Amino acid sequence: MKALEFGLILFGVLLNAGAQLLLKAGTRTIGQFDFSMANAWPIGLKVASNPHIIGGLSCYVISVVVWILALSRVEVSIAYPMLSIGYVVNAGLAWWLFGEAVTPMRLVGIAIIMLGVLLVAKS
């Protein structure tokens, strides 16, 4: 895999991970809510006007464009497993930004995922 191809894939993965983190930040500011007809409009307005949610959705849109560029250069059987890098990024940043638990079992799981990504990349 060439540096440009890997760069496109990594950029797409990081945008996707950033989108998840921004969406989580947005939902933290909105708070937990239930979907019902009674609160559909007020919650919909809160979601649609939340800067973190808007940023997260924007990251998703850009990541799709970057992903299309990557897929035009790399086989999907190589590119798609690279999305797993997002697990590592999200676990670390969720721990750092939101205080989420990263247990030893999760760390082992992440290590196994990364080993799989390395094997796919080297194949």
TrEMBL record:
Record bears the keyword DNA damage: no
Localization, UniProt: Cell membrane
Keywords: Cell inner membrane, Cell membrane, Lipid A biosynthesis, Lipid biosynthesis, Lipid metabolism, Lipopolysaccharide biosynthesis, Membrane, Transmembrane, Transmembrane helix
Matches recorded under Pfam families: EamA
InterPro entries registered for this protein in UniProt: EamA_dom, EmrE-like, Small_drug/metabolite_transptr
Domain of life: Bacteria
EamA domain: residues covered: 54-120
Entry membrane topology: Multi-pass membrane protein
Gene3D superfamilies associated with the record: 1.10.3730.20
Major location (coarse): membrane
Keyword Lipoprotein tagged: no
Transmembrane segments: 52-71, 78-98, 104-121
Protein name: EamA family transporter
Originating organism: Iodobacter violaceini
Lineage per the UniProt record: Bacteria, Pseudomonadati, Pseudomonadota, Betaproteobacteria, Neisseriales
